[in-house]
Write a structure and sequence with these properties.
By secondary structure, the protein is α+β, with helices and mostly antiparallel strands. Helix content is 23%, strand content 39%. The chain is built from 2 helices and 15 strands. The strands form 3 sheets. It has a 6-stranded antiparallel β-sheet with strand order 6-5-8-3-4-7, with no helix packed on it. The termini are far apart.
Length: 253
Amino acid sequence: MNRQRGFTLIELVTVIVVLGIIGGFSVQFIADTIEGYNRSIERGRLIAQGRQALERMSRQLRASVPNSIRTQTLSGFACIEFIPVAGGGNYIGQVPDADNGAPAVSSLSTGGYRVDFGSASRLFIAPLSVAEVYGGSAAEVALSSTLAEGDTGTTLNFSSHTFLRNSISHRFFLAHDAQAFCYTGSQIRYYSDSGSVSPAGGDIVADDVTTVTPFSVSTGSEDRNTLVAMEFDFRRGGEAVTLNREALIRNVP
């Protein structure tokens, strides 16, 4: 007599339940893997954005007139203000200052200069403090005419002027308006003119940003560079990374 072989209803239900449990775990594992991958991608984007923003700020700050970096509150925003170097060179001889008592001059003979970035309307010689840079002191004089990018020459003209001091290396800097990076509450913005800071102005350097102390400046001395510290939290899509950067800025002109 032949015996019929097969599965009982209980066996079939048991198999279905077991397969359902295994399938549920598999789906959850795949979903978690995909979510982890997406989070790592988003985190990578945040890190890349943050590093790019901090690198840009560091580079521009390093190329500033010595002792021109300061923290400021502009239009209610926490900002770091600086004057970028447009060009410069070395001058010939001595300029009149308080020590040598020479008569004021209205031109400067140089070994050659070039305006490499933007334009230049101001000449700085040996500014040793923020107060001298922004206080309208004799360390600076306005050029007779604004120099455009690419301008070269050997003589700089300005109104009759006596400088505060001579540079040890006979170095001078050409510059234009002060600029600023500002933390607006959720963004970092760059302003090519620090006098025109506004919520909708400037260029966005980074968004989705939070911080408590965006910028701090440790003033240097004749034998120590200025230190600028920056710290920001970059957040997006439930991900957050904290990045900080310290930049040494030359402060001996």
